[in-house]
Amino acid sequence: MQLNFIDNYPVSSMSMRSIPVIDPSDGLVFDDIQHSDAQDIDAAVQSARGCFEGPWSRLSAAERGRLLQRLSARVAEHADELALLEQRDCGKPTKQARADVAALVRYFEFYAGACDKLHGETLPYQSGYSVFTWREPHGVTGHVIPWNYPMQIFGRSVGGALAAGNCCVVKPAEDACLSILRVAQLAADCGFPPGAINVVTGFGHEVGQALAEHPGVDHISFTGSPRVGTLIQQTAAKRHCPVTLELGGKSPQIVFADADLDAALPVIINAIVQNAGQTCSAGSRVLVEQAIYQPLLERLGQAFAALRVGPAGMDLDVGPLIRAGQKKRVTDFLAEARRDGIRTVAEGEIVAEAPAGGYYQAPVLLADVPVQHRLAQEEVFGPVLAAMPFRDEDHAVELANATRFGLVAGVWTRDGGRQLRMARRVRSGQVFINNYGAGGGVELPFGGYKSSGYGREKGFEALYGFTVLKTVAVRHG
Ligand code: TAP
Q1: Which residue's alpha carbon is nearest to atom 44 within ligand 1?
Q2: Does the model's pTM come out above 0.90?
Q3: For 315, which of 94, 275, 321, 382 could close a Cys bridge (C-beta 3.0–4.6 Å)?
């Protein structure tokens, strides 16, 4: 049985209820988490407030950095344990679970080094004045974390908030709590004061909602679906609480005829099958210049047909989806594609060893997907790649920008002028030229245009969102 983590102690929910934890590889229950409610959120917020106004604010920026550095090292020491937890809880193949731990180590390391580099400015003003700015922490920050990359998103969000001087209350997705609870315990073990990091588990519509509503929460960071992002925004707006939203994408990989296809192919495939396609920055559309459309589809089709799907422990190309509901979402999208006559070019294979109760979905390559079709517009969050041809640069830009999202884009071309023109014209928060950074890049500011959200996480830029700027004007004559 897993407990909440409040004030540096594992504690039961006041409701005394629990939620079963299911292994996506076989669909069987193997643990329980707390089914918390608003009372538990209130206890966690009070703990965070006490820490913020007490021991946390007395630490210098360098001391906060040392604590984060210690936590980074402690996570690295527990890498095998955390990777196994994540593998069982989320169905991640071993290499993906290990990559997630490595990213968490890097987030804490990066933000450890950033703590004492965050500063204000002095500003020229009228004579007889000295004016300067301070970057102050919000206070208590709330973090609603999704299930697809619990450790990575915890690292980028909580790492940045702590570095900026905030204390945190975290609500992981109920499908993916175990690694986050363990990391909170590791933080306490290496000296974080009680209340710096609190974790409360439960359902989003109960504890997530309670966190967004709580008057003691000064900033909310949310990663997840546009639907829930809107709810959080509306709730937070009632008390003018700032939010950072990362709401996914329908990111294009744009392949011109002059591209190095040998380099592009494995990257394009990885960007959609990594984590079974359950990645906000998944490259879920491939836009291909007409002249190479058919030959590229053939090569992609051969590669898709060779992909193998199975239990996380087998460490194949693709693991199971997170839960039965997510599998249904993906199969419903595919049924719609079939109904509307969209061509399936190739499908991967689910291995015979995959237990019948697991949530497996073979990767699927679809061709000639009309730009207005839901398969070209909405996040499937599964290993489904939608291909479509384009005529020229203008048409490529038109298709790339033709969804409500704008998170990440990949451009494959050897033409230097075109590389820069495309980077300017595509409306997305990140553009990768001749590479694609799905899920990676601790140092690189990350966030969306349009319905992909606003505010930036990752990199130094995130620290501006986790602080408030105060201007101080001193009149001294
Ligand atoms: P969401 O419902 O958006 O879940 C994301 C997080 O929000 C979870 O921690 C969830 O908690 C919480 N939540 C749910 N309702 C809430 C509420 N009313 N107030 C506050 N927090 C709330 O996503 P989902 O239903 O798991 O997945 C649906 C689709 O969303 C996916 O298929 C995918 O397209 C998209 N999605 C995108 C991302 C990224 S990285 N952009 C991540 C996950 C999902 P519980 O899970 O405990 O309810």
Answers
A1: 224
A2: yes
A3: 94
